[in-house]
Amino acid sequence: MQCDRYLSFDIGGTSLKYAAFHPEGTLAYAGLVPSRLAEGPAGLLRQLQDLTDQLLTGGMTLMGTGLSCPGQIDPVQGRIIYANRNFPGFSGYTLAAAAADRLGCPVSLDNDVNCAALGELYFGQGRGLRDFMCLTFGTGIGGAIIHGAQLYRGPHYSAGEFGHITLDRQPDALPCSCGQRGCFEAYASASALCRRVKQVTGQDLDGQTILLRRQTAELAPVYQAWLQDVVTGLKSLVYVLDPQAIILGGGIMQEPALIRDLDQALNRALMPGYSGLPVRAAALGNQAGLYGAFALIKQKVAGDHDNG
Q1: Most buried among 118, 187, 205, 231, by the most CB within 10 A?
Q2: Which of 167, 162, 157, 115 is nearest to 141 (CA)?
Q3: Do 66 and 172 sit in the same domain of this protein?
Q4: How do the pLDDT tens digits run along the chain, 308 residues long?
């Protein structure tokens, strides 16, 4: 019996998540393996081919493949405009075309947070919403904008770089990985919280442990200061975008108590006209990018058929 499959891959600096979807959007299979980015584009293509061969068994037809990747992405050309040092040799690389040649199917490519936002729009917390912003908190802060139930990318495909809005203009503001100082993510990312805790306590604690101990005398002041920095950044974004909701992803944002604290603190800080703005944890967790990449390739294949 023949059956169609769509594949999606969420490419990270240390791991590669993969999934197979039925055409209607039901997840058939998902997994994770260490990524082989140190081998450059050729190594990634070999890995995509190997996983595709494993995921497609007898009688299955590969309809298309969606790729989710960090960095500045041109989704029209399927090109990685800029990739950081974890992706050696990928800046300027037309990954979608190379993968399409290798896999023998249509391929779409977009930024990882854009894909996560699309996943939430179609399958998660964004269902029924037309305007929301999505932020992911990890080593940095990524962002994406859904406007009119569509992903807004901007003319340079870089809309939603929320992590690099300025939070501190002082000359001694914290340095950011982008080369500037005072960026939102330097103060409010999950890594920033862990760094603050280590500076105060000398302990290397992960985000989940910090949240469990956030009400202790030792950690409460650090947690509250970090929380206020998160709220300050979110408040600025709300005043610019006026969203229906804020959807937050990243491992640390799966803690319900943190979402509750942020919801309450943000709504206290906002002007009355914005009160009641819901702050939600991403429903799809670390699979949001896979679902969004599936949505993109499904749209591309449907569009190609319509234009054919």
Answers
A1: 118
A2: 162
A3: no
A4: 458 999 999 998 889 999 999 999 999 999 999 998 889 999 999 999 999 999 998 778 999 999 999 889 999 999 999 888 778 899 999 999 999 999 999 999 999 999 999 999 999 999 999 999 999 998 899 999 999 999 999 999 999 999 999 999 999 999 998 889 999 999 999 999 999 999 999 999 999 999 999 999 999 999 999 999 999 999 999 999 999 999 999 889 999 999 999 999 999 999 999 989 999 999 999 899 999 999 999 999 987 655 55
Q: Judge contact between 159 and 146, C-beta under 8 A.
A: no
| Contact status, residue 18 vs residue 51, Cβ threshold 8 Å | yes
> Which amino acid appears at position 173 of this protein?
A
Does 272 share its domain with 231? Answer: yes
Q: What is the pTM of this model?
A: 0.92
Fill in the amino acid letter for 277: L
- Bridge partners (DSSP) of residue 249 are 136
Burial zone of 123 (CB within 10 Å; 0-12 exposed, 13-18 middle, 19+ buried): buried
Q: Are residues 295 and 242 in the same domain?
A: no
Same domain flag for 88 and 188? no
Residue 123 in domain: no
Which residues, at least 6 apart from 159, have a Cβ–Cβ distance to it below 8 Å? Answer: 144, 145, 152, 153
**Residue holding tokens 């890995």?**
47
User: CATH code at 78?
Assistant: 3.30.420.40
Residues 277 and 138 in one domain: yes
Is the domain of 193 the same as that of 222? yes
Report residue 41 CA to chain centroid gap.
21
Residue 183 · residue 165 · CB < 8 Å: yes
Cα 270–chain centre separation: 25
